[in-house]
């Protein structure tokens, strides 16, 4: 799945009808069909989806299929086995939080716990740490990042090295890291985080990149290039900048899925979830969408919930694919499954929160309903 | 709408009966009638008000009309369009929060979110920032203001300039700013905030001035003079000082609406909401009141809720008036509509909070009921 660093080749763009009939598409389709039978214990809510695991929808110029996201969640969510011990349901770390932003890393980290991870860490600046700790005693918060204003020029190299050493000694323990929520734009801090991303990659740690992490990656695509364990989750603006930088053109709404496929192929290996009215997910081979309506509220912070949730689901999906006996399952991209699951769960929780709180819905309200949303889809006792 | 700086002309005071028959009054009346038909989907609660959009009440010496504030809220509140994205329902900033006061800016900023804004920022001192952040991860808090005690005399100019630069780079993003909640009285800090107000004015950002911001403006009325996008929300004491300073006389309870009109005209262009048993609102042309009873509890912080709510409603009203096809609507002052809406919403939420919590009602209880109050008036699904 990996490509040599620097291999920025341009792949020919697949036309929709060509893609729909290509061997790669058909294979991926078979794999997903194999993966997504109705779950035996999922209850009546799955009956609608069980008759057809994948539903097709014709888009302007490219084949996009609607994921049966509920079935994905049911398959990849691990059973709550009494014999399991702390950490086995997931250890997540969020790299983010600076003097200016503290809410975003908190939202991502607490969401990971609410989805079902056992441990959730935050690596942030000293200024942010006290505040993030005060939001919740559930999180483990490491005050180790630094911004330019707190580092003398002649100390930069040694401080940067020390930060990497501190994070590195934890890295192997994590099942997934989230880079970017509330990271800010400080150049020294972003340099350090770039080094952390390189280290995570060497250690084969799946990495979700969101928020200011996407600013970093857009300016330095080599950080994720050819990394099949990297997931980018850009919103409208972030996606636009990424397309401009990598494809050197503007967004093409008429051929959205083709452009997304091309973008993934050009970066090479990564999975991208283009957030919007429908979330479009591609790893350069197929394009899946999740379009269940969530909430009309657009309060800031929902992207952070998504990033934390995708981190947990991706690590679960990876375990599921590795453990599964059927050889077909091994060829499904777990990063794609993680994105599908995270997208649906956020939409469902946002929908429930909006039903309850209407216009006054804020991000915390949505987080509080992650648990119920997951339980509705995938009962803990199944 | 603007007037040259320094144009402190004295306008002849309208007598009540003259005003009631003046062309300006009649025109404004027609405009508000045009604006306020019953909303089709507002439910039965609107039936009482729909029969008569404006009800009149004779005051001692001037015509004041009772706004149909529910109808105003229903008209200016934007529909929750599924195609909208983050930020389009409003981005608000509160300038306030110092070593002594942290609750007030939090109340104003969180109220903006609960009314329905997408993003809410606070610009405060470093001392205040950690605490305000810890109240809620929903807010984006910038620790950039400084008080005299933390700035050496020889640094004042450079620090002041740096603060303005920091705030200025965000300013264009905001739909409205609130100046004053928990600002304190430190002279250096107030000087900096005066510069921020001048910048906001140049950038045409609507500005709600409350609390210590009114102390600043009372001592320097030029900061808002001739600014049609400025709203002052004085309580009894703040209004008294403003009248003394600008009109050089004491409060005249017998001719309250005339005096308010004269005050608006003398300052020029601004909208003033004189808070009290009835909230009197004027832009120098008409005087509207909102008199629905709220709560007998007078716990501190309700003015901050009001300021944050007025900021959101004013920005919505501005969009509504700009977008509306009817030429009459374009001539209604959106700042007046924002005040009317904010006044009613606070009163309704305070009333619900008091029914529930009686003597123990505090500001947080009221904020928690902003959502239900708005939903009762203007259902999200309409």
Brief write-up:
Chains A, B: Its cofactor is Mg(2+). Chain A is of the alpha/beta class and 382 residues long. Chain A has 15 helices and 11 strands.
Written overview of the protein:
Two copies of one chain form a homodimer. The first copy, chain A, is built from 15 helices and eleven strands. The first copy, chain A, has one domain: Ribokinase (UDP-N-acetylmuramoyl-L-alanine:D-glutamate ligase, 3-Layer(aba) Sandwich), CATH 3.40.1190. Chain A starts with 15 loop residues before the first helix and ends in a 5-residue tail after the last helix. In chain A, strand 4, helix 6 (126-135) and strand 5 form a beta-alpha-beta unit. With 382 residues, chain A is of the alpha/beta class. Chain A is globular. The first copy, chain A, has helices spanning 16-20, 23-35, 47-50, 69-76, 103-115, 126-135, 156-171, 187-202, 212-219, 236-246, 256-267, 302-323, 334-357, 363-368, 370-377; strands spanning 55-58, 63-66, 91-95, 119-125, 140-145, 176-179, 207-209, 230-232, 271-274, 279-282, 287-290. The first copy, chain A, has an eleven-stranded mixed beta sheet with strand order 1-2-11-10-9-8-7-6-3-4-5, with helices on both faces. In chain A, helix 5 (103-115) runs parallel beside helix 12 (302-323). Chain A is 46% helix and 13% strand. Chains A, B: This is ATP-dependent (S)-NAD(P)H-hydrate dehydratase. Chains A, B: ATP binds at residues 275-279, 294-303. Chains A, B: (6S)-NADPHX binds at residues 182, 235-241, 304.
